[in-house]
Amino acid sequence: MKIKTLLLAAFAFLLLISCKTKTEKENFNQDHLIYATIWYQNSPETKALYYQGFNIAGERLKQYSKQKTAKPKAVVVDIDETMLNNVPFQAQEIIDNKEFSSEFWNEWSQLARAEATPGAIEFSKLCDSLGIPIFYISNRKVNEFDATLRNLDSLGFAFAKPEFIILRDNESSKKARREKVMENYEIVLLIGDNLNDFSEVFEDRSDSWGTPTVEKFKNEFGNRFIVLPNPMYGDWEKNIYPSRGMLPAQQDSARRSVLKGFK
């Protein structure tokens, strides 16, 4: 009798866990990405900000090209949401109600169908005309190298060659990869959609989301650092979610908790 009771209890427990997991899956959605993704995909403001960023970058580069440096000059750029537009992937996450995963991302990146961001190709050709190479330093993983090269080359980007593309191997920090470039070049300009694309000093976001560090380097923005728009994802998200594996309701509460209203 006791064994029968234990078996029934175990069955009830498993049924409860199963129902809970199913409910959690049903409650999961990517609706919080909708507005940012629509804005990025459709608003003319997005295009205007990219043109503005690359116009400023071009003017700065022309100035830097006339300055003498101990080493040859170089420009460092991020790839995703900097030179290539991956908003179809973000939109598909919403449409399929699917979380980000390396497998899902690879399904997209291997297609090599990302379009260029506004002004990116023209800027790369300006660099070429000035004799200043671009190094594409991205946190795409090394197994995406061939597809990434194919994507950049098919769009006509200057310096879309293996020696100028440096992807992620082990660590996500770009510090070591920038230092590798600096062995032979002086980096005069950096362009990206994430502060970590510019310097390792921005990697620590523990103090007010990293805002004090931005204040400290405020004179670099628009000069050596050119920031491009990306409201969809980034390292800033780490300040919203205190831990991994949060349930959908917990994630929603975490997002709401950082809002600052007027009451």
Strand order of the largest sheet: 5-4-1-6-7
Mean pLDDT: 92
Please estimate the helix content: 40-55%
| Inertia-based shape | globular
Strand content: 5-15%
**What is the CATH fold-level name?**
Rossmann fold
Output the helix-strand order: HHHEEHHEHEHEHEHEH
Poorly predicted segments = none
Assign the structural class, choosing from mainly alpha, mainly beta, alpha/beta, alpha+beta, or little secondary structure: alpha/beta
C-alpha end-to-end distance: 61 Å
Instruction: Tell me how many strands there are.
Output: 7
CATH architecture: 3-Layer(aba) Sandwich
Radius of gyration: 22 Å
Task: Quickly count the domains.
Answer: 1
Q: CATH class, anyone? A: Alpha Beta
Which sheet architecture does the biggest sheet show?
5 strands, parallel
- Helix count equals 10
CATH homologous superfamily descriptor: HAD superfamily/HAD-like
